[in-house]
Amino acid sequence: MHLALATLLGGGGAPVHDGPIAAGLKNFSNWLTEPTRYSVASILAVVGILYFRKFFAQVWVITAFFALSTAYFVFAFQDPNFNAIITKPDNVPIVILFATVIFFSWLALRRAVINDERTKRGEPTLEGELAKQKVFTWPDLVYTELICLILFTAGMVVWSILITAPIEEPAATARTPNPSKAPWYFLGLQELLVYFDPWLAGVLLPSFIIVGLCAIPYLDLNPKGNGYYTFEERPFAIAFFWVGFLLFWVSFVILGTFLRGPNWSFFGPFEFWDLHKLEPMVNVDLSTYFWVELMDKPRPDNPFVREAPGIVALIGYFLVLPPLFGKTVMKKLVEEMGMVRFNVFMHLFLWFVLIPVKMGLRWTVDLKYFIGMPEYFFNV
Amino acid sequence: MTKLFTYIRESQIWKSIFRHGYPDTPRNRTLAVLSNVFLHLHPVKVRRSGIRLSYTWCMGGLTFFLFLILTLTGLLLMFYYRPTADKAYEDIFALREHVPIGVMREMHRWGAHLMVISVWLHMYRVFLTGSYKPPREFNWNVGVILLVLTLLLSFTGYLLPWDQLAVWAITVGTNMARATPFLGHEGPGAALVSFGGIDFIHAGDDVRFGLLAGRFVGEGALLRFYVLHCVGFPLIAATLMAVHFWRVRKDGGISGPL
User: Fold this and answer.
1) By three-state DSSP, how is residue B45 classified?
2) Which ranges in A78-141 belong to alpha helices (H)?
3) Does residue A325 have a pLDDT over 60?
4) Is residue A188 assigned to a domain?
5) How far is residue A279 CA from its own chain's centroid?
6) Which residue among A161, A171, A377 sits closest to B186, beta carbon to beta carbon?
7) How far apart are CA A135 and CA B47, in angstroms?
8) Which chain B residues are closer than 8 Å to A199 by Cβ?
9) Contact A180/B168, CB-based, under 8 Å?
10) Which of A244, A299, B99, B188 has the CA that lies 20 to 30 A from A62?
11) Which pLDDT does position B258 carry in this prediction?
């Protein structure tokens, strides 16, 4: 049935011969979505939107954004490669995720901007004004709930009739599909497998995410911004969550779903998923850089001596940085939080920062591992 | 007609169920909420700011509603599904072949995708409005566990159609467990867990083996995931949901400026 949707929008079928503008737009999209540029562009976008939030919080900005995205979507639908990946029934929710996350981020930002301006003028926030009034649950709340429920159910039924749940060939443990992907909500973690070994990307980092989420209320001691949208009263918390959730979670899910093909190689949205696309692996361990390039001798045999530079670097990163920051630039933070909270916060934060650091080093100097001890499955 | 309605409303049966009149007076509106075990989840009165869609996005409510949809459709699917390696695929395939305009599997699948999204958006909203701050710290933690349970429910359900997508997605996912430090046979430190030259952690007894009831995704894993998906995780999730909703009320209702 999703094919009907595709034909409706005019896509699929025979290959299209592009004019110069269409071809240019497609090539640009393929160029921009290459993981390095994609990640850097997303970081710039998040920082830029938060900095120029007054501009981006305007209604016409989001309207223009969705109008342009829809136009782009209709244009891209004509392309068989784009069409093939977007119209996969299981990818429909990812498109919904993309649209809702952007819309709600905008909504929250808009209300934060309005509230911050009101606070500056000494007026109550949007929520503060309404909080004084109390209304009966019956009918004001239950009716809202009932209407939401009915509309939502109707939408679900229509969606379920239009798009049949797919079922592939029966399970065969001898035939590995290429690409083999985890369920879509774990694709952010699968993307991290490009940069980290499974024990980090698949076990330790997810555990830290859960522990970190649980720790948030006990680490964020700022009493402001409880029960209303704001940015200026808690800029670090909001910016941190935007980067963590929007960049390292949602945008990586989108990257993993739409732009990662066979062998987990990168494919632009208009690129054919060629099984034989090979990306050369030229990554180099830190130990090679240190012993071979810097000291100009072969790498020592003893793994602990061999990996000493990486071990020293990471011990310095995790054990020296927190007290160093605590004694200098973050002195006030230590006083407010106390030693225990500060150290828990710093360690979680440093693990978080290690991700972009490693990604950056991979892109710039082809770093493979800080510490590479395959003898003990200990690669960082 | 009016007579008939009045007759029904004054019958002993009606009165035995609803202990208040039509909810158009403050007294009856209060009673409508107080005398109903389901509506009793709500307080009698709420702050106007807390029920605005532009504030709550309705995502917590939708998540709960999706849980109900998934329970209902899942229950119906259980009638037609046998969790064995030679029947599972056949049964799911038969659902599509033999049921005209069948929407139960579709509702279950799309609903499951949506529930993951709505949980994320709910947490996003709660974070952005600072609703995890005192006195709601503990309830945020209950929420984090519910998030994990939602992902586990979805993950265990992913395997059940027993097609290529299912088996290989679970293979990719559970392969991570091999690399668990100390407890997975390819994890750092696993070699240290040995005594007198005997390795305690190997492919036949590490955490991955425990998850899958075998060295690869096979019949043991299917049964294990089925039981967890249909009974284990829903029970835990339902219990924690009760705690979650209870705490929302006890911690001062839907958050708002103090």
Assistant:
1) strand
2) 80-86, 92-120, 126-131
3) yes
4) yes
5) 23
6) A377
7) 6
8) 179-181, 184, 186-188
9) yes
10) A244
11) 67
pLDDT given for residue A8 in this prediction: 44
| A16: confidence class by pLDDT, cuts 50, 70, 90 | low
Question: Would you place residue B27 in the very low, low, confident or very high pLDDT band (cuts 50, 70, 90)?
Answer: very high
Sequence length of chain B is 258
Band (pLDDT 50/70/90 cuts) for residue A5 is very low
Q: Do A227 and B127 touch (CB under 8 A)?
A: no
Domain count, chain A: 2
**Cα A284 from Cα A291, distance rounded (Å):** 12
Instruction: Indicate if A104 and A205 belong to the same structural domain.
Output: yes
Q: What is the pLDDT of residues B30-68, one digit of tens each?
A: 998 888 888 888 888 888 888 888 999 999 999 999 999
A292 within domain boundaries: yes
Report the candidate in A374, A57, A335, A98 with the shortest Cα–Cα distance to residue A221: A335
Domain match, A223 and A110 both = yes
Q: Which residues from A are below 8 Å from B96, CB to CB? A: 164-165, 167
Q: In this structure, are residues A208 and A348 in contact, taking their beta carbons and an 8 Å threshold?
A: yes
Same domain, A81 and A195: yes
What pTM did the predictor assign? 0.92
Task: Give the range of the structural domain holding residue A346, as residue numbers without chain letter.
Answer: 286-379
Shared domain check, A75 and A223: yes
Domain boundaries, chain B: 1-42, 57-250
Which pLDDT band, with edges at 50, 70 and 90, does B205 fall under? confident
For residue A188, what are its two tokens? 């952010």
The answer, for A225 touching chain B at a CB cutoff of 8 Å, is yes
Q: CB of A361 within 8 Å of any CB in chain B?
A: no
On whether both A311 and A218 belong to a single domain, the answer is no
Residues A138 and A205 in one domain: yes
Alpha carbons within 13 angstroms on the beta-carbon side of residue B86 total 0
Residues A42 and A145 placed together within one structural domain of the fold: yes
**Global ipTM:** 0.92
Q: Which fold has domain B57-250?
A: Cytochrome Bc1 Complex; Chain C (1.20.810)
State whether B256 and A228 contact (CB < 8 Å). Answer: yes
pLDDT-derived band at A53, boundaries 50, 70, 90: very high
